[in-house]
Design brief:
Layout: H1 5-8, H2 12-33, H3 35-41, H4 60-65, E1 81-84, E2 94-97, H5 99-115, E3 123-126, H6 134-146, E4 149-151, H7 158-168, E5 172-175, H8 177-191, E6 201-205, H9 211-221, E7 224-231, E8 236-242, E9 249-251, E10 256-261, E11 275-281, E12 292-298, E13 300-301, E14 313-314, E15 319-320, E16 325-327, E17 330-332, H10 334-341, E18 347-356, E19 363-370, H11 372-377, H12 386-403, E20 408-411, E21 427-430
Bound molecules: 5'-O-[hydroxy(phenylacetyl)phosphoryl]adenosine.
5'-O-[hydroxy(phenylacetyl)phosphoryl]adenosine binds at residues 85-86, 128, 133-135, 205-208, 227-232, 236-237, 294, 296, 317, 320.
């Protein structure tokens, strides 16, 4: 089912016309109302969508320099809601929404939820954090728009999640893949098989995850898992999401215009080529952004999708360009390590990368947990058990082949790596 067929299945040509009109409106709006945009975009004419490629980019640092409200295009009295990005690297980035922007957010979230199989009357268990983070409230309001029954549990407090999932039996769950996997594991340990909960679908995002992680979540929960992408600067979750075909995430490109660029040369890349996603808002009023560099690495495709939606799709995000590790000259995203680890049946998706930069050549250690079957087979966990030792060699070899780097691999005792309640911390740097 398609939430808004007129918009989501619009013929391509009509979509391009709409994008062009909305792009001109956005540029006019931004130039008239924000000094920053006026200085950079004043006087430029955009007649065709391709002209976008001539405009300058906006970087996260520029949003930060304008902290808190410098890039807002409306009076504060017109701002109905504030959110913020997590701000792990200094001050958070403050973003704002007019009442109209919030409506657009509900609309795109309703589309994403519907594409994953959510229906009016279904119950949705929300395990994303509420507050300044956009995950909780974004899913909450989108689900209300669909007419769902929302259970706003938020992140943390795993025991509360277990109780409510068991007793309320929701149709769907949403959260970061790492946290929901933790909930599933805790359910399995404390209260029986989570597959008996009767969940039909899960919507996951806010951090990079892999097909291996999808398989683990689906196996653990007995439901279908869908990828949802977004970022606070653009709107929050709902920028893109998978449909039942799951061959890429449909970008809501009547509201957010995507480009992929080579991060080094800043040239726009053809569909199919991997690079950094750049987004332009087409309808946002409080915080319009033109060519915002997301830092996220992906690929676009405009191949038609059998579901009937006509938007451009993006591949699962591999990671953020600033999360790329360079070790002994090899470029590596943590998700690539996850991909290889999860091809190995005896392992579970709890892992951490430790990068040691204290000597001239950085080294990489990979810590990963074994699955319960393996531990049982060994009669308890013992790192020196021959089965574990041989697994360690096998995994190290696999990683070496896949990523071209020799790593120091440690199989750690089950349930000893820290569990996340929001976005997982996959990399620890020793300097
Ligand atoms: O994480 C919004 C969100 C909430 C998306 C819930 C999906 C679900 P921020 O905190 O601003 O907003 O972080 C945005 O998270 O630039 C990506 O690097 C990463 N990210 C978000 N979704 C995905 C995903 C929210 N599905 C940053 N896959 C983005 C990989 C993702 N990375």
């Amino acid at each position: 089912m398609i939430w808004n067929p007129d918009a989501e299945a619009m013929p391509r040509e009509a979509r391009r016309r709409l994008q062009r009109e909305r792009l001109s409106q956005t540029l006019r709006w931004a130039v008239e109302r924000v000094g920053f945009h006026r200085e950079r975009l004043g006087g430029v004419e955009v007649r065709h969508l391709e002209d976008l490629a001539r405009l300058p980019f906006v970087r996260k640092s520029e949003l930060r320099d304008a902290y808190p409200f410098g890039l807002f295009a409306v009076e504060l009295a017109e701002v109905a809601r504030i959110h913020a990005s997590s701000g792990t690297k200094g001050k958070p980035t403050i973003v704002g929404y007019t009442a109209g922007d919030l409506e657009i957010w509900r609309e795109v979230m309703a589309r994403v939820l519907t594409a994953a199989g959510a229906r009016r009357g279904d119950m949705l268990h929300v395990a994303f954090g509420y507050g300044l983070f956009t995950g909780g409230l974004g899913f909450h309001e989108g689900a209300e728009r669909v007419g769902m029954t929302v259970v706003p549990v938020s992140s943390g407090n795993t025991a509360r999640h277990r109780l409510l999932l068991r007793d309320l039996a929701p149709a769907g769950i949403c959260g970061t893949p790492s946290f929901v996997l933790h909930i599933a594991e805790s359910l399995a340990a404390e209260s029986g098989d989570p597959r008996a909960l009767g969940l039909r679908y899960g919507l996951f995002g806010a951090e990079p995850w892999t097909e291996g992680m999808r398989a683990s979540l689906e196996r653990a929960l007995g439901c279908r898992a869908y990828d949802v992408y977004g970022l606070s600067e653009i709107i929050g979750p709902g920028v893109a999401g998978e449909c039942e075909v799951r061959a890429g995430l449909h970008i809501q490109d009547d509201h957010f215009l995507p480009e992929v660029i080579d991060p080094a040369t800043e040239q726009v890349l053809e569909p199919g080529r991997e690079g950094e996603l750049v987004l332009t808002t087409l309808t946002k009023r409080a915080l319009p952004l033109v060519r915002y560099r997301t830092g996220d690495i992906t690929t676009l495709t405009d191949e038609p999708c059998p579901c009937g939606r006509t938007s451009v799709r993006m591949a699962r995000v591999k990671g953020r360009s600033d999360d790329m590790l360079i070790i002994k000259g090899v470029n590596l995203y943590p998700s690539e390590v996850e991909g290889t680890l999860l091809e190995i049946e005896e392992l579970v998706p709890h892992y951490q990368l430790v990068v040691d930069r204290r000597s001239t050549l950085a080294t990489l250690e990979v810590h990963v947990e074994p699955g319960p079957e393996l531990v049982e087979r060994c009669g308890g966990f013992d790192a020196e058990h021959p089965v574990i030792a041989s697994l360690r060699r096998r995994v190290a070899e696999r990683l070496q082949k896949a990523i071209g780097l020799s790593v120091q691999l440690t199989i750690v005792a089950p349930r000893t790596l820290p569990r996340s309640e929001g976005k997982a911390v996959r990399v620890i740097e020793r300097r």
